[in-house]
Structure prediction request, 202 residues.
Amino acid sequence: MKKATSNIKNPLPLSSRLIAWTNRGFVHFTLLILGLVWLTPSLGLLITSLRSRADIAQSGWWVSIFEWNFNIQNYVEVLNNSDLPPPGFKENFINSIIITVPSTIIPIFFAALTAYAIVFTKLRIRNFLYLLIIALMVVPLQVTWFPVLGMYKAFDITGSWFGIWIAHSAYGSCFAVFLLRNFFIGIPEEIIESAKLDCNNH
Prediction:
């Protein structure tokens, strides 16, 4: 009768574990410091926007962290001030929403369909299509401006919401396909097979 071999590994010595913990702690501490450095300008901008003009002229933004004298008066003035350049803050904010929301949804929707087809279908040219998409990411945007503007002028869509949506969607689709394709690769094929068995179509 053969003896069963144990798969339990011997624990590491205390010194090795201390070294591993120290290395991980150093890496985490370094990443924390870098994150704080990157966030400091944004934090300063946020705190400055919540200070009065007199406080801004008198001291730096970091002083307010200890004094805690914040207010939203600057935001109230911006929203109600009619002296801002036309069309005004409210209109510009609404325009930003009208541009941003469709320009985000459209490329993600079509990029998800494309990435799914590249990963889960049996197209013979799927690898070629993916390489073509990656190659398009290398092309400088400035090279495409003149032909795109010419096409916009030919179809008379300059200065329209539709033209802005198309431009943002087209320029962002390649990178969206790249990200979503890498995400879909991580999905186990068993999930797709079980979905097919449950009568869920592609």
Remarks:
- Confidence is low (pLDDT under 50) at residues 1-6.
- Residues 97 and 103 are 10 Å apart (CA to CA).
